[in-house]
Queue: 2 jobs
Job 1
Amino acid sequence: MAIAENLSALKTRIKSWRQQNEVIAFVPTMGNLHEGHLSLVQKARELADRVVVSIFVNPLQFNDQQDLTNYPRTLNDDVQLLSELDCELIFTPTEEMIYPNGMASLTKVIVPGFDDKLCGKGRPGHFDGVATVVTKLFNMVQPDIAIFGEKDYQQLMLIKKLVADLNLTVDVIGVPTRRQDSGLAMSSRNTLLTQKQLVQAPSLYKTLLATKHAIEEQGETDFSLLCGQAKQQLQEAGLEPEYVDIRRAEDLELANANDKQLRILAAARLGSVRLIDNIACDLA
Ligand code: PAF
């Protein structure tokens, strides 16, 4: 496994693989890798000849300076974890390499319809930052396949739209969320939770499951009632809900009783930590 710390090292590798017509899979990350990320790398391994993982904490997607400062950075541990997997290259650019002219007057990629709802509402500019950095990374790595976790379902759908709208030739693949035994979705931010919060946090997933059960098993079609009940359950468990929403899985538009493929999505705060999760709900 090699580490490319700059663009020219990355380009040299990519060029030689391209010349040999090898299939390249790419897993973009912000580091602090956990089992969820490792399952993305495993998926990449199954699908491609060469696997590239990037580690870059992207300042452009943080609307909260404190969140950016607190974001866990564990490069040595990440490299160690990846060295135990079958990954050919880690790309670890600096901020200056990704944004050589700064971010103030940067050309940005905006994905309408996905950027201002759900997580986009509470984090203005976040998805523009994600779309912009992912586009830049795609141009640098030139992958055939890119792998993203379903835990960030809105991000996954936004990137699929971006790729379709801009005619990018990368195949975007989603991988199911990895969970702890408690049901808590694996996330880099979980390391910021206290012992007490780690006991409270799984109620996010439990609430999503209860909502799914009410729709799939009990035939409940009053989605706004269900979302209200879910928020109340979260509050009772000590979380501060930001949103609970039931959406059409394909485009994240508001769902109605005729839609068959739904996604239930939620975000909630536990102290200073913002947790998100989502599950599929299938009525077909
Ligand atoms: O999901 C993440 O870790 C980030 O949003 C991503 C896709 C690496 C872009 O910075």
Job 2
Amino acid sequence: MALLPRKKRCKGIPTSTVSQDHLGRNSPVGEVKFGEVGIFLVERRMGSSRRRFLTELARKKGFRVEEQMSESVTHVVSENNTGKEVLDLLEKRNGISRTGFTAALVDIAWFTESMGAGRPLEVESRHQLQVTREAVAVTEVSISSYACQRRTVLKNKNRLFTEALKVLAEAAELNESEGRYLAFSKASSILKSLPYTVTKMEDLQGIPSLGVHSRKVIKEILEDGTCSEVENILQNERYQTLKRFTSIFGVGVKTADKWYREGLRTLDELRASNVKLTREQEAGLLYHNDLSAPVTRTEADLIKQIVERAVHKFLPATVVTLTGGFRREKEFGHDVDLLITHPEEGKEEGLICQVINWMTTEGLILYGDITGNSYKGRSKDPGIFDHFEKCLSIFKLKKELVNNLESEKLSHCDSLAGDKTRGIDLADHTEAAQQVTVAAAGSKDWKAVRVDLVIAPYSQYAYALLGWTGSRLFERDLRRYAKHSKNMSLSSHSLFDNEQNIFLPAATEEGIFAHLGLEYIPPRERNA
Ligand code: UTP
Ligand code: MN
């Protein structure tokens, strides 16, 4: 978007006198539509007339443009300057300390695109001026706004903030406010990837994906230890009830909200009501206690073994892979995600029905719902959902088998370690894991566990594996990155190059990252 010819000569950042003279009084100020965004235009290399023109344009479109750099500025926009040059100028002319700087440093492209869109756009990494963290940090950190370009391990140094942001994201999700849900999820995710604990606002300098609201939350927690908005949500009856209802297998936000509006509040009230439940919801309600308890890694390993044995009865060369959170090295999960494939493509067809039928007669399955393969050939425009044949199920897991496998693991570790101290550590851990299982199972000798079985044809296996390993945000950003940075369409089935008009086959996850021009991120670093 060419707005005005670029100025050739360099000018400094305007002092307050300059901005008032040139911009303050005569600028037509439209009604501010996006108060939460405050723009400061850097005059250096932009020139005063272009700056004036851009200011007027933005104000007409309802943007708030500040004459001077202040706390209320969220976006510092400059043209043909490096991040370091802008920070140097702000420090020199406006006395702003670089360590105290929390606004986004963006290129003019963000501004022109936002003007074009008529609203402030999300800051993408291509909009950001690169700045290295020069604060106390020993290492230089340059953080991408794409989760698929960050390495996020499970160890999170900013749990205090991420837990609060997670509540805000959940509340937004329950209000079906997708934009807010994403904003808080992204903020939480970026904090999870930081190699240090945030102890002051200056630590957030140059970090993308942190909106005004999220920064406000972090600031409040830094000052008061808690965030009042989060505390209020946690006490809110609608939030509590919708969380309770959506925790039932098969219940989404719309249904939960409907029940809430009908006056229902607890699971017992739901059970006593004459609300019509689906078969899935009935099972979800019946086994709710067990299904609410975390699934342990041992339980997941055991279920994988059970499924492996079952599929091998029918097709010996079938490959079963544990995906989802457990593949990202989580110790606990809400379900077990298993991906099933066969090296001879086509052999996998019809397998799931046989396996589920057999396991049901063996008393291994409490509930199962098979969805057929709805993949209509490769699609260039993949939707959010995949089309694999799958079975959403509830397994009946014998507690005794879990304990046996636990002891087996323990003795194996013992013999490997040959060191008493390590053995004791592991024993403590095992006991904790067993307590979870026992508590969930109560007096019965089995535990209900949610299991997703997904069948992928061999040629789509790598894409299915990448898609089902998660995390949710990592997946979302992979697709966003493919689309915006590469003009490619990624799904759990395939990758399509929209420029060359071809599908890009891949046999491994590494191959997919390579097609996307991304550095390979192993599963344990995808906990975004
Ligand atoms: P999960 O919801 O099971 O999440 O989906 P998780 O990361 O394993 O976490 P917990 O521990 O169970 O709570 C696993 C991955 O599978 C993808 C999701 O995007 C997620 O990355 N998925 C899930 C699909 O692609 N399609 C679905 O229908 C469900
Ligand atoms: Mn899972």
